[in-house]
Design brief:
Layout (H helix, E strand, L loop, with lengths): L2 H23 L5 H7 L4 H28 L2 H20 L4 H29 L2 H32 L4 H4 L2 H14 L14 H20 L9 H23 L13 H31 L4 H7 L1 H21 L3 H18 L8 H29 L5 H41 L23 H35 L10 H8 L18 H9 L15 E3 L3 H4 L3 E3 L29 H6 L14 H8 L3 E2 L2 E2 L2 H5 L2 H15 L1
Antiparallel strand pairs: 1-2, 3-4
Helix pairs in contact: 1-5, 1-6, 1-8, 3-5, 3-9, 3-16, 4-5, 4-8, 5-16, 6-11, 6-12, 6-13, 6-15, 9-10, 9-16, 11-12, 11-15, 11-16, 11-17, 13-15, 14-15, 14-17, 15-16, 16-17, 19-22, 19-24
Length: 654
């Protein structure tokens, strides 16, 4: 693909990602009216949100794994078609049961887009260049997450809530057309595809039960109830069985061997807390603006723009700098520190805090998330083998969504408890019976427009303090992000696209190691010298009896020798002083390939050098090993020499 084709295809990928994010956020401010028009209950209200989050989170690792086994372009198009059809059907829903059903299918399509967009980007863009494009992707995700509620509020107030579902359809269709016309991926090698059905079922069942438990606990049932215990224990058992199955599966959905890679493991932990910050802020900032500051849903979305702008600026600027200089870790450390500082500062806000100050705090959080979120995926893709890049990328997104969903549920329960206590205490201090708000003011959200002024101030103050307490809970998680970002191995970004790495892997090992310590573009010669350098101490220190040495470069490949009058020891390079302290004469310049071709090869009758000694010759430029000059046949049998020839042949074929 040309540079222009990459940019055009990327526009289709970004449009697909935007509609995926919007699907789960655009209805958040419209749900009260949607559920009311469809004659739904509070349970329906909860499930309209939970169904999509659940389907997206559970399906993300499945899509990622399938992308390692089959055609990624086809999978991406299937996800887009599924999302578009489900969105249209959801927009025409006549009851909440139908709406919830199609929201599940929306979530399945969104899960595919979330996983596959990042994987396809790794195919067509090298890690070194991917930083700037990851910045664009992070900006799109941030706009979708934070701007979705604003768009939903505007659509609901103007042309009706059904357009919350229709608005993404034209964008999805356009993305489908652009991807079909511009995305060109090589076909996957034909092989038998083994699907881990047991692993997929156990992971889906365990995670679904876990998310339903934390989402509905304390609302639909008490935490300390039979239902709660059954769901919690059931989720633990299913996930434990999933781990056992994944260890034994030939093609696991989430390869557990990935956790041997330090980069992957540390990125997963960091992603959990980033997910809490990203999803939590969009939910609780909306509540703060509406219930603590008395703003409308549309205005609440507008007031969160400082955070959106912070996300846009930091993700794009940091991405461009990473691509320009090849350094990613400093920006991620700065971002994680900004995120932690922003969350700690947000824990100090009250209902009447100057909005300019709140805006600065929100901008700090946005800057932090923008620098960290997508770059975690970048460093993971850079450090894992190309054969599992789909599973690895989707796993990071999966754990980010999982952390965000669980975090929002837990913090929501804390918010409800805190607000209830603050309202009760405030009303009691004011000499007002708390039961005047219904259920003691503990479970219902009052309509502030109908509440007398003094009581309204108490309620707004309670929500201001409650939201601040929620941010204080999230702040220590951001500190964990700082720690694990600092622990990430500072691996240099590679310069090959996923397609190039896959092509190279058919001729030799992939250049990404499983421990995350290498994902470089080192040549086979560099790897060979590094591997054999450890053998140098085994070389005999006896004086060399011949003054012939192996010349470098092409002369070695031709099996040629050049002669000097200097003496040298065999455990040092020819340029080093001899054991007796005599400085060798200057070495002649290496022969050109033409001169090397004219020279007569020198053959020796000495016994073969010990095993591994020939490799040491190449590692140290020594002329002889244990007093025996190296023959052409011995040189040709060297594994390191063979790797040099193989690398040259591979380059020639390309």
């Amino acid at each position: 693909m040309s540079h222009r084709e990459v940019l055009t295809a990327l526009s289709g990928l970004l449009m697909g990602m935007l509609v995926a994010i919007l699907s789960s956020t655009v209805v958040s401010t419209s749900l009260p009216r949607i559920v009311s028009d469809l004659n739904g209950s509070q349970t329906s209200y909860t499930w309209v949100i939970t169904a999509t989050l659940l389907a997206t989170t559970v399906s993300t690792p499945l899509w990622g794994k399938f992308s390692d086994l089959t055609n990624r372009k086809v999978l991406l198009q299937v996800a887009l078609v599924l999302f578009v059809l489900a969105s249209v059907a959801a927009g025409f829903s006549q009851n909440t049961a139908t709406l919830i059903t199609f929201r599940v299918f929306q979530g399945l399509g969104a899960g595919g887009l979330t996983a596959l967009v990042q994987v396809v980007m790794s195919d067509i863009i090298s890690p070194r260049e991917r930083g700037r494009y990851m910045g664009y992707l992070g900006a799109v995700m941030s706009v979708g997450t934070i701007g979705g509620p604003l768009l939903g509020g505007v659509l609901t107030d103007s042309i009706g809530w059904r357009w919350n579902f229709f608005v993404g359809v034209p964008v999805g269709v356009a993305a489908l057309i652009v991807i079909q016309r511009t995305l060109h991926l090589p076909p996957k090698p034909k092989k038998a595809v083994v699907v881990d059905y047991w692993g997929a079922g156990l992971i889906a069942g365990g995670v679904s039960l876990l998310l339903v438990w934390v989402s509905l606990g304390g609302k639909q049932f008490d935490w300390n109830s039979t239902t709660s215990w059954l769901m919690g224990v059931g989720a633990a058992v299913l996930l434990a069985l999933a781990v056992v199955v994944e260890f034994r599966s030939k093609e696991p959905i989430i390869p557990l061997t990935l956790f041997k890679n330090r980069t992957f493991t540390f990125a997963v932990v960091a992603s959990l807390s980033v997910g809490v910050a990203m999803f939590g802020t969009s939910v609780f900032l909306g509540q703060y603006m509406q219930l603590a500051r008395g703003q409308s849903p549309t205005m609440a979305g507008i007031l969160t723009l400082p955070m959106v702008l912070g996300l846009l600026i930091s993700s794009m600027v940091a991405g461009a700098l990473i691509s320009k200089y090849g350094k990613w870790k400093p920006y991620m450390i700065v971002g994680s520190v900004l995120l932690a500082a922003g969350l700690f500062l947000m824990s100090t806000i009250e209902y009447d805090t100057n909005f300019a100050i709140v805006s600065v705090f929100m901008a700090m959080m946005g800057l932090g998330i923008g620098m960290v979120m997508q770059n975690l995926v970048l460093v993971v893709q850079n450090s894992v083998d190309v054969s599992v890049v789909g599973a690895a990328s989707s796993s990071v997104a999966f754990f980010r969504s999982l952390g965000g969903t669980i975090g929002v549920s837990v913090m929501g329960a804390v918010l409800g408890t805190k607000v209830s206590g603050y309202i009760t205490d405030g009303l009691t201090d004011a000499g007002v019976d708390p039961s005047a708000l219904g259920s003691g003011g503990s479970t219902s959200i009052p309509d502030l427009s109908t509440v007398p002024g003094p009581i309204r101030t108490i309620i707004e103050s309670a929500y201001g303090q409650g939201v601040a307490d929620v941010f204080l809970i999230a702040a220590p998680l951001a500190v964990i992000t700082i720690v694990f970002v600092c622990l990430l191995p500072n691996v240099e970004l590679g310069t090959k696209t996923g397609i190039q790495r896959a092509a190279a892997a058919t001729d030799g090992p992939d250049d990404a190691s499983t421990d995350g310590s290498a994902a470089s573009s080192a040549s086979a010669a560099e790897k060979g010298v590094s591997a054999t350098a450890a053998l140098a101490p085994a070389v005999s220190s006896a004086p060399v009896t011949s003054t012939e040495r192996v010349d470098g470069g092409d002369a070695v490949g031709a099996g040629q020798r050049t002669t000097t009058d200097a003496s040298a020891t065999s455990d040092v390079s020819p340029e080093a002083p001899s054991a007796g302290g005599t400085v060798p004469a200057p070495q002649p310049a290496p022969m050109s390939p033409v001169d090397a071709g004219r020279a007569s090869p020198v053959h020796h009758a000495h016994a073969a050098a010990p095993t591994g000694a020939i490799d040491t010759v190449l590692a140290t430029n020594a002329a002889e090993v244990a007093g025996h000059p190296v023959t052409d046949d011995e040189l040709a049998e060297s594994p390191v020499f063979s790797s040099l020839v193989e690398e040259k042949d591979v380059s020639g074929r390309r």
